[in-house]
Amino acid sequence: MTDTLRLATRGSDLALRQAGTVRDALSSRRRDVEIRRVETRGDQIPDELIHRLGKTGAFVRALDEEVLDGDADLAVHSLKDVPTEGMDDVVIAGVPERAPSGDVVVHPDGLGIEDLPSGSVVGTGSLRRTAQIKAARPDLVVEPLRGNVDTRIEKLLAPGLQAEHERRLIASGEARAATADEGGEESDGEGGENGADEPNWDALSDDEGDTGEGDEVDDEFDRTVEEWFDSLSDLERSAMERKVETEYDAIVLAEAGLRRSELFYEVPTTRLPREEFVPAAGQGAIAVTATDPDVIEDVRSAVDHPRTRVAVTVERTILGELNGGCVAPIGVSALVQGEHVHTRVRVLSTDGTEEVADTRDLPIRSHAKAAEEFAADLADRGAADLIEAAREETEADEGTREEADDE
User: Fold this and answer.
1) At what angle are helices 306-322 and 367-378 packed, to 10 degrees?
2) Which CATH architecture has domain 4-101+278-396?
3) In CATH, which superfamily holds the domain spanning 103-152+243-271?
4) Most buried of 80, 154, 160, 342, CB within 10 angstroms?
5) Beta-carbon count within 10 A of 134 CB
6) CB-based contact 243:302 (threshold 8 Å)
7) Model confidence pLDDT, tens digit, residues 123-154
8) In sequence order, what DSSP letters do the residues of 76-95 get, joined into one string?
9) DSSP assignment of 279-348, as one string?
């Protein structure tokens, strides 16, 4: 084992932040860590929805191959992106303490899902969230949304900010035109294009500290266009420059992704009720994969969080047993409570009109086995049929479906 551990990660801001937390934990154990950015298949198709990328693990395999090929010692993933099968050649060496695992609605005015007007357009790149939104509010329009966390928020904010900017420019221009008209009336129309009665806008700007065209304060606004623009956050300024094809009224994201990107307090958010909007298996958790026994032991002792490990084991066991992780809308959420793991599962049809759902307290001492039994019971009660119908639907659509990496 080398003195410096090489850690493979995606190059997105969120992925780098996640990798940074693992690096810091290992550094506290006096291990040097070098972060290696790797482009994954999911990164190579930025305009395509995740569920059309062709196989499970679009963001995962390229990183693990760095480890398998000896070019990295460990890799960091969002756990919900890690497949429940086909991982026999690497070990999930560590699962750090989980961030909040639920979903939130982001709306410019802070409206919750229940407050959105009928016909509102909601953006998400997730099959599960799409079905859950349709089940809760069939009167809403759900449209695909892809990109990093900041990109998605910018797509939401862009139309409103751009429209506000245009309104302010128009109001500013109208104020100038009105002033020019008044000057013409006072001179009885004798002031021509170069006449003495034409207002000297350059002089007015110099005298009054104005910074240029479009900065007059109209009665409708309390600030000039420039003052308004200066008050915007960096995120809002970036949104001003973004061209969008679809205008969203709201978007749904993982709370963990917003928090790790330090954007949770940048935009108005409302938590979705976990009873209805059951998170994806592993959402909010990070997985560190490795193959070398010494690295595995180092990672496990430095970052593994036992309660989180138990909870995500239950979630991933149920998802794996149902065999629908990339083709069906499945929410699985587990929480360790004393000697039990409180577990909630919701399996839906892709249009949200049918579902099989249940909650169960699983004994912590046999949580993996109990999770298998819970999954088998759900499958017998109709979950298997919903998953098979979803699989046929996605195969007809020439692609499998997977959650977007937004956490």
Assistant:
1) 30
2) 3-Layer(aba) Sandwich (3.40)
3) Periplasmic binding protein-like II (3.40.190.10)
4) 80
5) 21
6) no
7) 998 999 999 999 999 999 999 998 889 999 99
8) EEEGGGS-SSS-TTSEEEE-
9) PPTTTT-EEEEE-SHHHHHHHHHHH--HHHHHHHHHHHHHHHHHT-TTTS-EEEEEEEETTEEEEEEEEE
